[in-house]
Specification:
Elements lengths: L1 H31 L3 E7 L5 E7 L21 H9 L6 H7 L3 E3 L9 H9 L8 E3 L1 H4 L7 H14 L2 H12 L11
Parallel strand pairs: 3-4
Antiparallel strand pairs: 1-2
């Protein structure tokens, strides 16, 4: 049922938000010369996929977990995109194609070995990764792998249609955040 909701809502979102997406693409082009960020992440059943986001960091920033990146890597425009969560809009394509869901564990990098092990042990990779979920609402990021994996597993076990929409609603209205960046 949630897959059908994902398809319909991502398609509607892409259509309705296409003027905003186009504007953000143009501004992003002037900011970094490369407005879309594409990074290989761990997907359902540990299958790799490319996560799409609006670029918020300089093009030459090292590809590591966000909590390991220095704030100086974030552009001024990127800071706005992150605070407004607009950097996530390209993930509507990931949801539409089935690589992601609106709700699920945030997809991690393959080189986050401790998190991969913790999530694998708890069966977290049995579901599609998501744009938001319980960990984001509770402000738990990838810098605490064991706690994150436990929270992801708890969310998967208790996920219902009501909690699915609750996580989306809370995220849209400012609850939670993405991965923190080092200072």
């Amino acid at each position: 049922m949630t897959r059908l909701i994902d398809i319909v809502c991502s398609l509607i979102g892409l259509i309705l938000l296409s003027p905003i997406i186009l504007l953000l693409l143009i501004i992003g082009y002037f900011d970094t010369g490369s407005p879309i960020f594409k990074q290989e992440r761990v997907g359902r059943n540990k299958k790799p996929f490319y996560l799409l986001k609006f670029r918020s960091m300089h093009v030459n920033t090292q590809s590591v977990a966000t909590h390991l990146v220095q704030t100086s890597s974030i552009t001024k425009w990127g800071s706005f995109l992150r605070k407004s969560k607009l950097d996530e809009l390209p993930q509507l394509f990931n949801v539409l194609t089935g690589d992601m869901s609106f709700v699920g564990p945030r997809p991690n990098l393959f080189n986050q070995e401790e998190l991969v092990q913790e999530r694998e042990t708890r069966g977290v990779y049995s579901v599609r990764p998501g744009i938001t979920g319980l960990a984001q609402i509770q402000k738990i990021d990838m810098s605490t792998p064991e706690l994150l994996a436990e929270t992801d597993a708890q969310m998967i076990t208790n996920l219902s249609l009501i909690s699915y929409f609750k996580y989306i609603f809370l995220t849209l209205f400012g609850k939670g955040f993405g991965d923190r960046v080092c200072y």
